[in-house]
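Notes to self, Trafficking protein particle complex subunit:
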Amino acid sequence: MSQSQARSTPSARKANILDRNLNKTKNTEVSLSAFSFLFSEMFQYAQKRANGIQDLEKRLSDFGYRVGIRMLELTVFRERNSRRDTRVLNVLSFIHSTIWKSLFGKPADSLEKGTENDDEYMISDNEPNISKFISVPKELSQLSAGAFTAGIVEAILDGSQFPARVTAHATGNDQFPVRTTLLIKFDKSGK
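result:
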């Protein structure tokens, strides 16, 4: 067999990423350093184009929304036996455990119902990967980098037919200084 024939045979070629099976769930863990680098670059990109903290959080949330739509699609595809949840708590549990674990390697630390309003829930992460490796300038100290995660959750809820507004809030304490809580407020019309 000549060298040119060996190169053209399928077994000799490298597998193209587009040829890989989406159902393959082996080794789905993403390198934390790669994730941190990409998030840092995305953060800097958004920061250069933003006019203030609210605009920056909106841009991060928009980036997260794009990721969330794709994450929902991929997760539903991988779980072929999945069906559309029709209860709020089921969807929130799905996000709290399955989605969070797929994205961050562990489930979220808590899922709570709001005490003031029936249509509010909170998902908290004591040590979010989003906030671990970024340094926020002093003039942006009120910024919550968790806006990216809020965008992901909002997209998954919208895609699951539960329209909601999701915002990220820094709720750090002495034990968990970078703790982030996502406040989920469902639209009354979509419930």
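- Helices lie at 3-8, 32-49, 53-78, 88-104, 129-132, 147-159.
- The chain is about 45% helix and 15% strand.
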